[in-house]
Amino acid sequence: MDPLARYEPLVDDYEAFRATCERPLPTVVRANGIKASVERATAALDEAGVGWRAREWNPDLLELDTDAPGNTWPYFLGWIHGQEEVSAIPPVVLDPKAGERVWDACAAPGSKTTQLAAMMDDRGLVVATDDNLGRLAPLRSNAERLGVTNLAVTHADARHFSLAPFDFEAFDAALVDAPCSGEGTVRKNPSALSGWSESFLDGIAGVQKGILRRAVQATRAGGTVVYSTCTFAPEENEAVLDYVLGEEDCRLVDLDVALESTPGVTEWNGRTFDPSVRKARRFWPHLNDAGGFFCAKLEVGG
Ligand SMILES: C[S@@+](CC[C@H](N)C(=O)[O-])C[C@H]1O[C@@H](n2cnc3c(N)ncnc32)[C@H](O)[C@@H]1O
Fold this sequence. Notes:
By secondary structure, this protein is of the alpha/beta class.
């Protein structure tokens, strides 16, 4: 079984897509504004003799000329954090403001949690939830190294998340960076597709639907929910959006990220989806020489 072959009808240049999936990823880190400015972080990289180039669409993202950024002083000091380029998309789309309350429903190991906190100037509240206790330890240590203090970590199944412990009734925004089949991570992990099966897609899609529904319910009217996966499967992307649009009071809105992408698909394997799923974006690896990603932005109704 060659899972990526099923996406040939969705890709503009199938050969370029397959060739890019065979190549390793560039090493990218995010400069952590909580501890150091980009200028300070890049000066430290210069001193360490590590070459860097800032990404045009997001100057906090630096491609490094080393495949071991974790061995550098700026990393140890919490001035930079290893984060795949496409992984930085959802917080940029969510665009949180200092002082807001934001729920990161599938948070571990915390790349996006710490990015959200940095974008909020470490003010307000980020609630980082994950149902995998073992993955919460790296989340905590990343948050500590990066100097994040506006953070509450909770161990819970996001599908049944309770707001009862909090002194507010809804979040301003929520991020669902969902567990998924990970097809878009093959460049980082060539064995990512070894356990692939259609029945896995069906099972994980059920989890994704439940988490996204709860995120919409837990967000105030007028608030934003961002849904993302690192997979290409429409079963886990547009089909999940289509389902939640039918169950909850929310609508898809345009998202603006200065990377190459294609619209969400409205038909797949004989199924059709709500036309508004075209507002979601598919980030194919060959378009940006990065990982594969899917991202959608919802506005909660009311
Ligand atoms: C794609 S990863 C998240 C990566 C993370 N957002 C980051 O940027 O570092 C998905 C996460 O969802 C968690 N997860 C899976 N099922 C969950 C559930 N029902 N409730 C909460 N978290 C869940 C997994 O343990 C995993 O850590």
